[in-house]
Amino acid sequence: MNTQAITRKTILRTRLFEVQEIQVQLPNHKLHPYQLVRHTDSVTILPVDEQGFIHWVVQYRIGAGTELLELPAGVMEAGESPLECAHREIQEEIGMDASELLPLGSFYLAPGYCSESNHAFLARRLSPALRAKDEDEFIQVQTFNLEASYKMAATGKIQDAKSLAALLLAKPILLASAEV
Q1: What pLDDT is recorded for position 130?
Q2: Domain boundaries in the chain?
């Protein structure tokens, strides 16, 4: 296919993202307007401790209008690599750090209208770290074993897409290392 952006115009800028109006030439040569949310990339971390428990967070999410059970995650800061962000986020959200952060893969969260790519990591060899929380985050940490975590995913109790994707990407590794 030969689809290409012809024009771009920023129509809204906030502290978290910007919205662009983009005129796209479609394969049939017609122009079509799209709106794109330009958002900084992010990370999701699946932290598994030595006993095989996954450390989850519960926090209110405005888009869902309720609290969600999620894996620790966050937006990359300017100049920060995905790995650096993963270390920072698990410290902030669960008060732990990992001496082993294994990249699981990257994926787009909502590619139909948003540019944000998420980088997932499996975190092992956890140790306590200072928990310098963000002032606007009110997070509860919960732990569940691997079997319970995958059961919650299968039964719809986990509704956060990035957490579901990280669980899926980590499953072969966790099965191979006999931690399931």
Answers
A1: 78
A2: 4-38, 40-176
The answer to whether residues 121 and 104 touch, using CB atoms and an 8 Å cutoff, is: yes
How far is residue 111's CA from residue 78's CA, in Å, rounded to a whole number? 22
Q: Is 80 a catalytic residue?
A: no
Cα atoms in the Cβ-side hemisphere of radius 13 Å centred on 129: 19
> What tokens were used for 91?
């410290």
Residue 113 neighbours by CB under 8 Å, 6+ apart: 34, 35, 36, 37
pLDDT given at position 180: 41
Task: Indicate the SS3 state at residue 168.
Answer: helix
Q: Could you read off the pLDDT of 86-102 as tens digits, one per residue?
A: 999 999 999 999 999 99
Given the residues 18, 84, 135, 179, the one annotated as active site: 135
Q: Are 114 and 40 in contact (CB under 8 A)?
A: no
The topology (CATH level 3) of 40-176 is Nucleoside Triphosphate Pyrophosphohydrolase (3.90.79)
